[in-house]
Amino acid sequence: MSTESYVPVAAAADIAPGTAKTVVVDGREVAVFNVGGTFYALDNSCPHQGGPLADGWVEGTTVTCAWHAWCFNLTDGSMTLGAFARVETFGVRVEDGQVFVSNAPRRPEVR
Ligand code: FES
User: Fold this and answer.
1) What is the pTM of this model?
2) What is the pLDDT of residue 80?
């Protein structure tokens, strides 16, 4: 059984508010978003056809996939248009100007 650990992925200054960055955690692409100084991490691969969510548009705490506009809540990975899809999220910590992302994905609840 693996244990959760937080992996350093970027300097906080490299992900400015209003932007996102694709990082790799344990070989997996994760999109890290900075929304007004709060960081969120989602699986970078959109469950529709794999569009990179880090390239999506963010409004509030919702990201809209740049490919076909599916929308996900950054806080829990739930889909805002319905419960037929979801994205895993990851814990994020910022310490001493460094962003750390958990290697343990969290499955959002289906609502
Ligand atoms: S790949 Fe994201 S909406 Fe189609």
Assistant:
1) 0.94
2) 83
